[in-house]
Design brief:
This protein has about 200 residues and is of the alpha+beta class. The protein has helices at about 10-25, 35-40, 60-70, 80-110, 120-145, 155-170, 175-185, 190-195, and strands at about 1-5, 25-30, 50, 55-60. About 35% of the residues are buried.
Length: about 200
Amino acid sequence: MLRLIGQASSINVRKILWTCAEIGIPVAREDRGEAAALRALNPNGLVPVIEDEAGVLWESNTICRYLAAKHGRTDLLPAAPRARAEVERWMDWQATDLNASWRGAFMALVRRHPDHADAGRIAASARAWNDLMEILDGQLARTGAFVVGESFTLADIVLGLSVNRWLMTLMDRPALPAVAAYVTRLAARPGFREYGANGIP
């Protein structure tokens, strides 16, 4: 059984849980526990961390790719280089551009962190977040289905969770019809309903 370290409320831990649900991997999850023990597994001291017969691995998107490849799930992560790159491009965009945009607004409006209380920075973060969500909306309008095309992939796991975070944050948002239709498609998947929806009816 796969050992997964990290609290279930973490968006990055939920990437792993949803991936495992799609593949059918049994998981033994535990919270982060003692800081020194976690740092011994991941020098960054962050979750998620997994451990299997091959050893320890960290970085959430890398873990998702590893699990899909290990279990031969080329539907989630294609073997062909170009098709795989299309999936990984959107996964990397989620981890870099999109995550960087929402940090200020999310930390202020959801986490209520005092270091992120500046109104101007909150507004700038919200604008940047909405701008990037419009990019995703355009991509989804082009595919008419999932992020890279007609089929569900790992890109939809990481971006589906990001869409959920955007919808659950109390701020002004543009109407994005392709994103709204995308959420409806994701809601048909048991893994999203269990680990991704996070309160969306």
